[in-house]
Amino acid sequence: QMQLAESGGGLVQAGGSLRLSCAASGPTFSRYAMAWFRQAPGKARNFVAAVTWSGNSTYYADSVKGRFTISREYASNTMYLQMNTLKPEDTAIYYCAANRGGLGPYDSWGQGTQVTVSS
To answer: Residue 27's pLDDT is what?
Structure first.
């Protein structure tokens, strides 16, 4: 399994932007598909975005398409989530996840970072 650590969360006004980072430890980052999930208070954890091990394909939940961008940087073993035009309903704890090979099921998870969007 890979060790993952998220950062970049915080409080932002509606319409603002944040960039989340997920630092991965391990020598085989390039062989892992990576994803972001989020969990709002009292709700289930939901998929947000994913990127393949090659970085050639990305996938998004309908609720974030056109606003969020997932990317990865192999030199630093880091994955990012650029979040623009944030809405109060984006408020949640954001988790990064990894799976060796394909897009899930994900067996490595970070501790999460809180994102709060005020109206």
So the answer is: 72
